[in-house]
Amino acid sequence: MPTFVYMTRCDGCGHCVDICPSDIMHIDKTYRRAYNIEPNMCWECFSCVKACPQNAIDDRGYADFAPMNHSVRVLREEAKGTISWKLKFRDGTEKNFVSPIRTTEWGSIKCSSDYDAPSDEAINSQELAHEPDVLNIEGGLPTLKPDQLKQGVI
Ligand code: SF4
Ligand code: SF4
């Protein structure tokens, strides 16, 4: 669901540009408003949608993913510490979700260059680079034992 910007709401603050991991939110030099330069490269991470103080960013569903078509609106309310999502389908169905805003401070997450480079053998691992460290799991990711895979075993 790539994003797009309502130009009349955007004030060009640039938060979406700073946060986009795909570097596709840019500020138009003439209009001083943000726009998605390459929707096909959108990770659909919704970081820009949540970060926008003007609620100026929306997303559109791909036809195969959302055949009934729908809109997704997001409202970030700092005072309440919540983000509210409203999904409205073409048949009128509405779904509403509220979740807490993450309290991780801006700039407090280590960037990949702050970690030691992975060893050559790491390419054969099932884990992503530094995954146990990032998830605070010592000794690797938890896995199911073969007998736990049997149907009915809790
Ligand atoms: Fe960038 Fe994520 Fe927004 Fe897509 S959803 S434009 S990848 S921040
Ligand atoms: Fe515009 Fe919102 Fe991006 Fe700021 S974060 S530049 S208001 S779209």
Give a description of the structure:
The protein has two domains: 3-100, 2-Layer Sandwich (Alpha-Beta Plaits), CATH 3.30.70; 112-140, no CATH class. By secondary structure, it is mainly beta. The strands form three sheets. Strands 5-6-7 form a three-stranded antiparallel β-sheet. It is globular and about 55 Å long. 9% of the residues are buried. 9% of the residues lie in helices and 23% in strands. Strand 6 and strand 7 (94-100) form a beta hairpin. The protein has helices spanning 15-19, 47-51, 131-134; strands at 3-5, 25-27, 34-36, 57-59, 70-77, 82-89, 94-100. The two termini are 36 Å apart. The model has no long low-confidence stretch (mean pLDDT 85).
Please tell me how large the radius of gyration is. 20 Å
CATH class of the largest domain: Alpha Beta
Spell out which ligands are present. iron/sulfur cluster
The separation of the N and C termini measures: 36 Å
Total of domains: 2
CATH topology of the largest domain: Alpha-Beta Plaits
By secondary-structure content and strand pairing, the structural class works out as: mainly beta
Strand order of the largest sheet: 5-6-7
Helix content: under 10%
Shape: globular
**Do you know the CATH architecture of the largest domain?**
2-Layer Sandwich
Q: Note the run of SSEs as H and E.
A: EHEEHEEEEH
By DSSP (H or I, 4+ residues per run), the number of helices equals 3
Task: Describe the structure concisely.
It contains 3 helices and 7 strands. It is mostly beta strands and 154 residues long.
